[in-house]
Amino acid sequence: MKPPRRAAGAVVVRPADAGWRYLVLRCYRNWDFPKGIIEEHEAPLDAALREVGEETSLAGLELRWGDAFAETAPYAGGKIARFYVALAASGDVSLPVSPELGRPEHHEFRWADFAEARRLLPPRLHAILDWAHALVDDRSP
After folding, report:
1. Does the residue 1 lie in any domain?
2. What is the dihedral sign for C-alpha 120, 113, 57, 107?
3. In a 10 Å sphere around its CB, with 0-12 CB exposed, 13-18 middle and 19+ buried, how is residue 54 labelled?
4. What's the number of CA atoms in the CB half-sphere (13 Å) around residue 1?
5. What is this structure's pTM?
6. Looking at the 3D structure of the chain, how many domains does it have?
7. Which value, to the nearest 10 degrees, does the dihedral of the CA atoms of residues 20, 26, 31, 36 take?
8. Which residue range(s) make up the domain with 113?
C-alpha cells in the first residue's frame, strides 16, 4: 500500500474591524484554503508558506500561533492536507499565473468572516476552519 499524498497549506487570517477574516480561494465551484503538494525533502511548514506565496503573492506571513497544525481526513484518493495558521497583517492578494498551468490556479479570492467562510468551504474543511477560528479567537485582531 503506497503512502498517502501529503499537502500543506495555511489558513491565512487578517484582522478587520468586525473580527478576523479568513482568506479563501475559489477554483471553479470549489472553495479552499491555499495549499499544495509537499515536495520531496521539503518540510510541511516550508511547503505551506511556499504554496501561500505561489497561489496568493502574499509574503512575510507571521506565524503568531507557532507551528500548531491540523490535518484533514483523507480525501481525493487518500490525500491528506496539513494546515497551519498564518497572519497576513498587510499585503495585497493577487492570483498569479501558474507556470505549469499557464493560468492562475484560482478564479477568485475573498477575505471572509467566519460565517461566510464556513458557508463557502466544503464540509471536509469545516473542522480545519473551526480549529483555526478557536485558535485565533483567543487573541483579538
Report:
1. no
2. positive
3. middle
4. 4
5. 0.93
6. 1
7. -90
8. 6-137
Burial code (b: 16+ CB inside 10 Å, e: under 16) for 24-37 equals bbeeeeebbbbbbe
CA 98 to chain centre: 17
> Which residue's entry shows cell 510541511?
44
CATH classification of the domain holding 80: 3.90.79.10
> Residue 44 phi/psi, 5° resolution?
-55, -40
User: pLDDT digits over 20-56, tens only?
Assistant: 999 999 999 999 999 999 999 999 999 999 999 999 9
The amino acid that residue 41 corresponds to is H
Answer for the pair 61, 89: CB distance below 8 angstroms, yes or no: no
**Which of these, 93, 31, 35, lies nearest to 59 by C-alpha position?**
93
Residue 94, C-alpha cell as written in the block: 493577487
* Intra-chain end-to-end CA distance of the chain, in Å: 45
Q: Which amino acid makes up residue 30?
A: N
What nine digits make up the cell of 138? 483567543
pLDDT of 2: 61
How many Å apart are CA 64 and CA 139, to the nearest integer? 10
